[in-house]
Amino acid sequence: MQLTRKGLWAGIINEFREFLPEIGDDAIVTLLEGNTPLIEMANMKDIFGDIRLLFKFEGLNPTGSFKDRGMTFAVSKAKEDGAKAVICASTGNTSASASAYAAKAGMKSYVLVPEGSVALGKLSQAMMHGALVLQIKGNFDEALNIVKDITKNYPVTMVNSINPYRIEGQKTAAFEVAEHLGHAPTYHFLPVGNAGNITAYWKGYKEYKDKGVISSLPKMMGFQAEGAAPIVAGHPIEDPQTIATAIKIGNPASWAAALAARDESVGVIDSVTDEDILEAYKLLAGREGLFCEPASAAGLAGAIRMKKEGVLNDGDTVVCTLTGHGLKDPNMAINSCPKPLKVAADTKKILKAMGF
Ligand code: F0G
Q1: Where are the beta strands (DSSP E) in 46-186?
Q2: Quick check: 321 and 173 in contact, CB under 8 A?
Q3: How much distance in Å is there from the Cα of 42 to the middle of ligand 1?
Q4: Average pLDDT in the 193-203 region?
Q5: Which one of 63, 122, 131, 234 has the fewest CB atoms closer than 10 angstroms to its CB?
Q6: pLDDT 10s digits, 36-45
């Protein structure tokens, strides 16, 4: 099956409608998400040799993360069903996305976030989009349990990735990778938190293979942060810890589906240390010009590890999803770099500081 796209991008629902559950035209709530670039690695040949490495930069979605792909569909379906309000638990990005799409749909949004563990950019988004932001003294897993409780009894639609329309929307990222490459990658690396995204990519790749768009499937390579790696440990982590706050999750909702993605694809779910994550985060920004948030670099950190361990080989096509934009977490960026120099407003002194 050959797919051709014409004209201006119309958002993932319009673009991939034949591969998504039915939805009425009037219900579609879109910020024209999707169509993110798949960018070739340029300056990591010393690490990756003749591996073809590409970055799917999901930070370029309207609210700065991959969540927009799922949120357009979840909020559109909520609108179609007559919902007046949406709710989510979030480490930040889901809340930013939910509140933006709810604003566009004219709905109320409620977001539960763990106090002190949400990056500033994300918090500012939810606040600006008019969400009722509820900071709880507890972690993401506790917030998600409360949201599940509330949605059982009250007229608010849950837009966490337990909502199946979130996964439907997010699977379109796999469609785009397959279309851009003209085939499936050998390996697809990505960070794992609540495990919705690895589930969604795997669903997308399988569907494109079933439809004959691609003839092979990638191995799915999911990476958790070492202090928040319940799937690797094989049991929930009560008090997860990592600098990558987006994936600070101890009991992922899509645990079973993530294991299925790993096993069916003959892939891996493993962990990387916070140091590995920070190193990959800085490599992406400093060598490739790609500013992603810390959690987003866990996929590349995993790929570096797999290369060192001899799993990846020359000639492989490796895609890493960079799930969120670096501007989401300016504090982490500033704290990871040497301080700016303070110099007098004087040409000579500035030239000296420049090394001339
Ligand atoms: N990367 C980023 C930047 C994220 O925000 C998340 C999840 C993930 C990776 C992991 O994806 O949960 O599908 O395995 N963020 C959620 C949130 C939990 O609330 O924004 P996942």
Answers
A1: 52-57, 85-89, 108-114, 132-136, 157-158
A2: yes
A3: 26
A4: 98
A5: 234
A6: 999 999 999 9
Quote the CA–CA distance of 20 and 95 in Å, as a whole number.
23
Q: How many CA atoms lie within 13 A of 159 on its CB side?
A: 39
Kindly provide the residue ranges of all beta strands, DSSP E only, lying in 161-209, ordered along the sequence.
187-191
User: Which of 56, 161, 203, 247 has most ligand 1 atoms within 8 Å of its beta carbon, as the pocket-test mutant?
Assistant: 247
The pLDDT, as a whole number, for residue 5 is: 73
CA 242 vs CA 97, 115, 249, 262, 277: distances in Å: 23, 15, 9, 23, 10
- Interval 38-94: pLDDT, tens: 999 999 999 999 999 999 999 999 999 999 999 999 999 999 999 999 999 999 999
Provide residues with CB under 6 Å of ligand 1: 65, 67, 90-94, 161, 191-197, 246-247, 293, 295-296, 323-324
Please give the structure tokens belonging to residue 199. 């589930």
Ligand 1 centre to CA of 247 (Å) is 6
CA of 148 to the centre of ligand 1 (A): 18
Measured in Å, residue 84 CA sits from the centre of ligand 1 at 25
Residue in this structure with the two tokens 């799917």, named with its chain if needed: 56
